[in-house]
Amino acid sequence: MLSELKEQLAYIEEGLENEVLAGKIAFDELTLTVRAENIIRVLVFLKEDGDCLYEQLVDISGADYLEREKRFDVVYHLLSYTHNHRIRIKVETDENTPVPSATGVYSSAGWFEREIWDLYGVLFSGHPDLRRILTDYGFQGHPLRKDFPLTGYLEVRYSDQQKRVVYEPVKLPQDFRRFDFMSPWEGAKYILPEGGGEEGDGNDRS
User: Is 47 part of any domain?
Assistant: First the structure.
C-alpha cells in the first residue's frame, strides 16, 4: 500500500509540477498542498486523469491558524471508487483573498463552500450562491474563527411585546464564575455549612 501511494504521489507531482507545493503520505492517504489560485486545475486533473480518477468530493473543510499571515486552510477530501484511494488537498488563504469555487468540477462543492464561508468567512470566487447556510441570516461574524468571542455578538429572544424575534447585543449580568454544586454521585470533600442539605437525604454530615 505504501509503495503504491508513493508511486501515485510521484505521478501526481510530475503531472502537476507547477501547482503542487508539497506532498506527503499520512494515515495511509496522500496529502497535497497546492497554490489556491491553481486549485481548479488540480481538481480537474485528479478527477479526470485515468491513473487518478477521484470521482467523488467527500468534503471540504476549513481550519483557522490565527498566527499565520494566510490564516485559513481550505481542505478538500476526494475519493476514487476505481482505485479505492483517498486524497487530501490543502490550500492557504486569508480573509480577503478568494479561493476559486470548485462547483464547476464537483457540484456538491456548493454547500461545502457555503458552510466554510458561513463559519470561517473564507470567500469563494465564482460561487453561484455564496450565503449563510448554518447560522441565521442576521448573524454577525464567523463563529469558527479563533478570534470569535465565546459569547458571540448578538443574543436572540422572542419579544412578547413586539410579537417577533428580536436581536440584541449580548449582555452578561455577571462575570463568568464557577458554581460549586455538589455532585449527586460524590460526597463533598469539605464540611458543609449547617442546613446545607435536605433532611432525610441519607448523608451523614455530623
Answer: yes
Number of domains in the chain: 1
Q: What is the pLDDT of residues 136-187, one digit of tens each?
A: 877 889 999 999 988 888 888 899 999 998 888 887 666 655 655 656 566 6
Grid cell, residue 64, equals 483557522
Alpha-carbon gap, residue 163 to 146, rounded angstroms: 35
CATH of the domain at 123: 3.30.460.80
In a domain, residue 181? The reply is no
Residue 130 lies in a domain: yes
Residue 177 resides in a domain: no
